[in-house]
């Protein structure tokens, strides 16, 4: 695992931070170059393959992770083994519940994932000292709350066709919210998508085939999806 460089002049932004999406769009955008340099002494870049567990339910939290690339799957597992996907995180989201002693969900790499890990002590100290960073984290938390409420509507009121379209729109709009043509690999298996949407695998596959037949999406090799027109896909979300 490679540590973030901190051997540069104190007035400069650390090299690895300059092209980082979290630096420009996420929580680190609230930090000055000097604060980034100080924080970089407590960070490290790590890579996880798809399927790796990043954080277990009830596991003590010792660090937080900025998602730099990839998709993180959040899930809950009941005592009898039943499993429910409860959310997805994308760059530049923060993995880990701030100021909590232990995790309330299991976090798993849904695709290959790159994280910038920050020690719990360093992050929480910086939040206490930096109102702008605290504000940025609050905005992210509120956005995730809004998305969770929207997803409750999706699960409770939308048809199977609208659920599948909403899932694809969720992925596409997070990966490239301004692109005219969005291309991505599905970060979840058909079984996980069905679990996330409350549908059977067969229903998920049938609805995707219908979207493909209508020209709303293109699918190659079962998981590679192209969305020629996000607005058209959004119309199918209900």
From TrEMBL:
Keywords: DNA-binding, Transcription, Transcription regulation. InterPro entries: cNMP-bd_dom, cNMP-bd_dom_sf, Env_Response_Regulators, HTH_CRP, RmlC-like_jellyroll, Tscrpt_reg_HTH_Crp-type_CS, WH-like_DNA-bd_sf, WH_DNA-bd_sf. The keyword Cell inner membrane does not apply. It comes from the Bacteria. Residues 158-231 form the HTH crp-type domain. The keyword Transcription regulation applies. SMART domains: cNMP (SM00100), HTH_CRP (SM00419). Signal peptide: none annotated. Pfam families: cNMP_binding, HTH_Crp_2. This is Crp/Fnr family transcriptional regulator.
């Amino acid at each position: 695992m490679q540590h973030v460089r901190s051997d540069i002049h104190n007035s400069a932004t650390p090299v690895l931070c300059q092209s980082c999406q979290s630096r420009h769009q996420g929580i680190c955008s609230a930090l000055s170059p000097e604060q980034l340099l100080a924080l970089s002494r407590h960070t490290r870049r790590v890579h996880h393959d798809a399927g790796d567990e990043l954080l277990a339910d009830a596991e003590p939290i010792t660090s937080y992770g900025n998602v730099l690339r990839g998709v993180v799957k959040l899930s809950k597992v009941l005592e009898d083994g039943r499993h429910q996907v409860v959310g997805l995180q994308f760059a530049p989201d923060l993995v880990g519940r701030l100021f909590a002693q232990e995790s309330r969900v299991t976090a798993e790499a849904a695709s290959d994932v790159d994280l910038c890990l920050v020690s719990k002590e360093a992050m929480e100290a910086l939040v206490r000292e930096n109102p702008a960073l605290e504000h940025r984290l609050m905005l992210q938390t509120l956005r995730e709350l809004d998305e969770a409420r929207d997803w409750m509507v999706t699960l409770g009121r939308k048809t199977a066709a609208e659920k599948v379209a909403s899932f694809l729109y969720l992925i596409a709009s997070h990966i490239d919210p301004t692109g005219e043509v969005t291309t991505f690999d599905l970060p979840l298996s058909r079984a996980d998508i069905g679990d996330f949407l409350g549908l059977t695998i067969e229903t998920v596959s049938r609805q995707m085939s219908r979207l493909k037949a209508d020209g709303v999406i293109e699918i190659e090799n079962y998981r590679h999806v192209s969305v020629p027109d996000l607005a058209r896909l959004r119309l199918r979300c209900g």
